Amino acid sequence: MALSNAQKQRSYRDRLKAKHQATTDAIERELLEEAERCERGEMSDQERISLADRLADLAKDFLWRAHRLSRLATKLRTGEDHPLQR
Q1: Measured distance CA(12)–CA(14) in Å, rounded
Q2: 76 within domain boundaries
Q3: Is 64 within a domain?
Q4: CA 24 to CA 43: how far, in whole Å?
């Protein structure tokens, strides 16, 4: 039985979402492993500063994403014409 276009699109979106999540998790896991190396004193000062910059960038990206999702949740709860949306 052949899949409809909607089923194919949903399957494709699900695969993309899983791939993105796996990539994000892998990046976070890698950075945490590097942070453990740093705590053991196995990094130079330059490597430590570079790691700190990458961690700060990742944290900023997560914060922006959380803020966007929070605004969307408020919009869904209250509607677009609510005073909290201004």
Answers
A1: 5
A2: yes
A3: yes
A4: 24
Contact 8, 24 (CB under 8 A): no
φ, ψ of residue 44 to 5 degrees: the values are -75, 170
- Enter the pTM of the model: 0.58
Structure tokens belonging to residue 3: 């899949």
Q: Mean pLDDT per segment of 10 residues, for the chain of length 86 residues?
A: 81 83 82 89 90 90 90 84 62
The token duo for 84 is: 């909290």
Q: Let me know if residue 8 belongs to a domain.
A: no
CB atoms within 10 A of CB 28: 13
Range of the domain at 76: 14-85
Provide the domain count of the chain: 1
CA 71/CA 64 separation, integer angstroms: 11
* Residue bearing tokens 């979106």: 13
Query: What's the token pair of residue 41?
Result: 């004193």
